[in-house]
Amino acid sequence: MKNLMKLSGLAALGALAGLPAAAQDAATAAAAPLAPYTFEQSVNNGDVAWMSISTILVLLMTVPGLALFYGGLVRTKNMLSVLTQVFAICAIVAIIWVTYGYSLAFTYGGSLDTFVGGFSKAFLAGVDVNSKVATFTNGVYLPEFTFIAFQMTFACITPALIVGAFAERIKFSALMVFIVLWVTLIYFPMAHMVWWWGGPDFLAQEQTAKLIAEAAGDTAAAEAAAANLAANGLLWNWGALDFAGGTVVHINAGVAGLVGCIVLGKRVGYGKESMAPHSLTMTMIGASLLFVGWFGFNAGSNLESNAITALAIVNTFVAACAGGVAWMFIEWAMKGKPSLLGLVSGVVAGLVAVTPAAGFAGPMGSVVLGLVAGAVCFLFVAYVKNALGLDDSLDVFGVHGIGGIIGAIATGILVNPALGGAGIPDYLSQPGTLQVAEYVASTAIMAQIKAVLFTLVFSGVGSFILYKLVDMTIGLRVKQDVEREGLDLAEHGERAYSS
Q: How far apart (Å, rounded) are the C-alpha atoms in residues 124 and 293?
């Protein structure tokens, strides 16, 4: 969040001595807005408390939420394997995060800063209880440990989402190797490209320095300040909006899952044998934990406890419910019966879609977004997936990929204040304050489309290379006899149930 680059020297303004008193007063008044920007780093205990709760809620989404949601959807013989995969990913990625992941995602990366951070905070070097990071409000900061912990939960759940696409057929050892490579080469750079920026005070400081330099005719200082203003992640500089992870989390994981299910191939007996979920009760419990935890995921991404946090909570609530209602009624109309699995899948689709829009859209826009996501994701899962012959075991791409694409593009529409949106943030027109920029539909929507296309290509191609690398070295898939026996006993020597 906080760009740690050293600031360029500010050009000094000409002395006012010698001017007539009236002229000097007028010159002083004119120069006042160009005074160097200064700020204090204020930490609000209420913000810290909310972010601590949000961190715990997002962890709850992964373990036990996602683990139970996925576990209930597989066959009995693979329940324990899915629980183990999700829990192990959470544990391993957390260690990687504090070792070098946080540094790659949220520090200045030198010549590669547009794409990825550096290693200046590897092993959390330089981070202590006095370290702070910027939020989205001038002068408002969080303890850096709070931000590290919150973002760590995102790093944990994103790769865990992928496993649902090829559940019941991947080697545990291969999965662990793939996940280490994937978070390092795909997730951390994506997080940097979307969420790395200087923070509001840094932008105000550099914008003011640029204006001072321009007024003084100091071209070199003006160019240096302009360079600092542009030292953000690639997608951030494109103007792409992603409040809580539509690109970084859902499209990223959804595409990786899609590529994975294609590379590994279909499950033995797919289309010929029953592969019905063994416990929709477990799936409903997991979905409910995801629903509750998602309030920390979306509203916590505001980094503060204020009105935008409240907006994100309302949007998350209504979009999820709209997604569930849309899926349920369309399934009811087209298949004759409303299913519990359809209802909870629709809720998740609504949650996915509203993730990038949570703090930008208005409540009515979020309802529409949830309805569209629930309907489109249902059609993809029920019909398009089968037409394409995909064995995306637990519909990772159908829900997270498709829902994330819908939400990311729709964010560029729903942010429009005329539609009840909060508007696009503008930190530069009046340095030191947050303004709402003029909404230009073509610009806003195109930025979102570019971000989606980039994520599809970056994650898709990168994930394919990593899958192939792991497959050529240790092999991705278990043997057919192991798959038929079930991964619980063959891979872990345990059963999920004793009888």
A: 27
Partners of 401 in beta bridges? none
Give dist(CA 414, CA 247) in Å, integer: 17
At 14, the pLDDT band (50, 70, 90 cuts) reads very low
User: Which residues touch 464 (CB under 8 Å, ≥6 apart)?
Assistant: 259, 263
CA 486, 491, 493, 498 torsion: positive or negative?
negative
Domain boundaries, the chain: 42-197+232-491
DSSP annotation of 477: B
The answer to pTM > 0.90 is: yes
What are the tens digits of pLDDT across the range 126-179?
Answer: 999 999 999 999 999 999 999 999 999 999 999 999 999 999 999 999 999 999
- Residues 407, 369 contacting (CB under 8 angstroms): yes
Q: Does the pLDDT of residue 331 top 70, yes or no?
A: yes
458 phi and psi, to 5 degrees?
-60, -50
Helix (H) or strand (E) holding 28: helix 21-31
Task: Choose which CATH entry (3.40.1370.10, 2.40.170.20, 3.40.710.10, 1.10.3430.10) describes domain 42-197+232-491.
Answer: 1.10.3430.10
**Cβ neighbours of residue 334 under 8 Å, at least 6 residues apart?**
382
